[in-house]
Specification:
about 140 residues; mainly alpha; Double Clp-N motif; two-stranded parallel ribbon; two-stranded antiparallel ribbon; 8 helices
Length: about 140
C-alpha cells in the first residue's frame, strides 16, 4: 500500500525525534509527535483542537527514558510494539475502506485504536477523549 507524502513526512519526523529523547525505537507516542510536527491537515488540526501540542507530547516523551516495548525493524525504521501495531491497524483500516493509500488520517485512527501502549498512556495522562477524536477523524474521511 502506497503511503502519502505527508504520512511519510510524519513518520520521518517521528523517527528524527528518537535521538532527541535518547530512545531506541518508535512508539505510538512518537507517531503522535510526528503528526503534530507535520502541521496542517486533518490529523494535526483535530489533535490540536483536542488539547494536544508538540510541547505536551515532547514532555511526555522526555519523561519516558526507557521503554519495555519489544522492537522490530520495518522499512528502515526501528518500531516498538505500539508503533508497529498502530501502522498495521492503519493499513487494515485503509484497506477496509477501500483506500489505495495510507494517509495521516488512517495513521491517526490506527493510533487511536490502541488499547494499551505509549499513545494510550499519553491520551490518558492528558485527559484527552480518544473516542471523540476518532469519531471526528472518521467523519472527515467519509
Amino acid at each position: 500500500m502506497e503511503t502519502t507524502p505527508r504520512c511519510r513526512q510524519a513518520l520521518k519526523y517521528a523517527q528524527e525525534s528518537l535521538s532527541r529523547f535518547g530512545h531506541a525505537h518508535l512508539s505510538s507516542a512518537h507517531l503522535i509527535l510526528g503528526l503534530l510536527t507535520l502541521q496542517g491537515g486533518v490529523a494535526d488540526n483535530i489533535l490540536r483542537k483536542s488539547g494536544l501540542s508538540v510541547q505536551l507530547v515532547e514532555g511526555y516523551l522526555s519523561s519516558r527514558r526507557t521503554s519495555t516495548e519489544e522492537s522490530t525493524t520495518q522499512d528502515g525504521m526501528a518500531l516498538g510494539r505500539s508503533a508497529l501495531l498502530a501502522l498495521q491497524r492503519a493499513k487494515a483500516l485503509a484497506r477496509a475502506r477501500q483506500f489505495t493509500y495510507l494517509g495521516v488520517e488512517h495513521l491517526l485512527l490506527g493510533i487511536l485504536a490502541e488499547e494499551s501502549g505509549e499513545a494510550a498512556d499519553l491520551f490518558a495522562s492528558a485527559r484527552i477523549d480518544r473516542e471523540g477524536i476518532s469519531r471526528t477523524v472518521q467523519e472527515e474521511i467519509q
